[in-house]
Design brief:
alpha/beta; eight-stranded mixed beta sheet; 12 helices; 12 strands
Length: 313
Amino acid sequence: MPPRKIIIDTDPGQDDAVAILLALSSPDEIEVLGLTTVAGNVPLDLTTRNARIVCELAGRTDVAVYAGCDRPLGRDLVTAEHVHGKTGLDGPKLLEPTMEIAPEHAVEFIIETLREQPAGTVSLCPLGPLTNIATALQKAPDIAAKVQEIVLMGGAYFEVGNITPTAEFNIYVDPEAADVVFKSGIKITVMPLDVTHKALVTKERNDAFRALGTPVGVAVAEMTDFFERFDKEKYGSTGAPLHDPCVTAYLLKPELFSGRHINVEIETTSELTLGMTVADWWGVTERKPNATFIGDIDAEGFFALLTERLARL
């Protein structure tokens, strides 16, 4: 089969970086048509910088980076330097990027690509707030019928929230955008905290990255060395969850994951639960299922895949 065509929409972020590296290391299965950046973990200028750094680290300057929306649809931007550091990629010493930013706006690139490619052949892979995706759908409603699938990292149900008591960061930053996406009718697969919190970078797993001895392996190990301090202190876990690489791993080996096709609604008005992904896991409403909500992962298989692929770069 030909490689699966994807657009990665991202706000790097150390775990975004690992997700991108996993995709770029797998050209036989994944063709990355472009990286589109959005404000999220850090402001847009830094997420765009970081996406270019990751492409250069992987030796893939052929992959274009398009800068997108610098703020949510109707809210002030909330960022996460407290997790990812002031640059978003704190930890390793990384060179400033030299590759150019593509001149086209990310939203226009998404719209044009979906219109140009045969229907059902391009998947969207958002790793951050859904502002770019929602804006594209609002500007060009016809593209919804062209998308093969949206596989996103965001939301939570049993794991509740990581930025508020009930909301996961990506959805909380732009809940109105998430609402647009979940109501789009597009096939959606969700990697919530429920599954990503089972993909923990233990010392042994991080040592395996470092033992690759390559610039990529060492950089990934140093990235997780940095941001795991926050999660280990917050959750008392044995390591940091690698949220965003779950998206890429799902594209490569969906058999590593399991979940349910359920209804997911986004809370956009409540002061207490703004940004909550209200997941009808138990089927207690009559609302129509609109997303596959992943709940479990083969963590050993996931890290074996990740280590093997990073070794290729």
